[in-house]
Amino acid sequence: MSKDEKYRMKETDVSAFQSHATLCATGKQRKENQDSVLTLSVHWNVLAVSILCISDGMGGLSEGKRASSLCVEGLAAWFHDMFSSDSRRILSDENLEKERNALFDAIFRVHESLNRTLHEEAAGKNLSMGATCTTLLIIGDAYAYVHIGDTRLYVKKKHLPLRQITHDDSLAYLDYQQGKIRKGAIRRHPKRNVLTRCMGNAPPAKLSSGRGRIAPDDVFFLCSDGVHGYCSDWSIGSAMNKTLKKGEEAGIHQLDRIILRSPAAYNYSMILATCRKKNPR
After folding, report:
1. What is the crossing angle of helices 233-246 and 248-259, to 10°?
2. What is the C-alpha to C-alpha distance for residues 135 and 76, in angstroms, rounded to an integer?
């Protein structure tokens, strides 16, 4: 990669359990990327804990970046508060699930609070400001996600097809759910960027969420619409398979090359995370 490329890539071994790579790019149409990306990891007792998030700002150049930054900064502050050395609690087999579920509940409430913050700031300044937000919290061998907008979360389990965990909150995806179009047509839909929900809407936030278990060699992929607008599910699945063989950076580069083939490519962000080994818990 040349030194003058306008994006940054980082690959971090966060534990023996998980590794990830992140890419934020401006593309060919814009000078600034309004996306904000968060990747933080700690060890909580014997558990590996990670939070991964992509937020795509809306509402104008400066306001869009401000909105996405508020989302990831709020999540980062919560993560540090919960998992700092001063606040870590001793886990036992008896209280592990209770503590983990309490944290999964808490991450949902944090998103509700951030939604109110965005809405109040926009109203106070008479601005139209909002952001998409897709967050993945991994604690040991379990995960929870919270989602709103058209950023996406995928999972690829070994020997199983790619699965899109989140659903886009957009008019195009609504047409797909109603059977009016095929999924592949979402990328070409004239209203693919018209959202039905986002952070910053009048409370309460209409968030979607879910939980699941993790197995060795599971690969998670978070991305903004600047990625899935140009990469098919087949291409994303292929990159996730490549990740298991050659690493996260190889998977990221494969998708990056596909996106940059289009002269219309605009700002885009993605995170590839791999569960390499079975966690002790």
Report:
1. 150
2. 11
pTM for the full predicted model: 0.87
| Burial class of 233 by CB neighbour count within 10 A (0 to 12, 13 to 18, 19+) | middle
What is the residue whose two structure tokens read 């990625």? Answer: 227
Residue 7 CB partners (closer than 8 Å, separation 6+): 23, 24, 25, 26, 33
The phi and psi torsions of 201 (rounded to 5 degrees) equal -65, 160
* pLDDT tens, position by position, 164-208: 999 999 888 888 888 888 887 887 787 877 889 999 988 888 999
Closest CA to 30 of 6, 66, 50: 6
Determine contact, residues 82/104, Cβ cutoff 8 Å: no
Cα separation, 118 vs 131, whole angstroms: 9
With tokens 């870590």, the residue in question is: 88
Q: Are 244 and 217 in contact (CB under 8 A)?
A: yes
* Whether the Cβ atoms of residue 271 and residue 221 lie closer than 8 Å to each other: yes
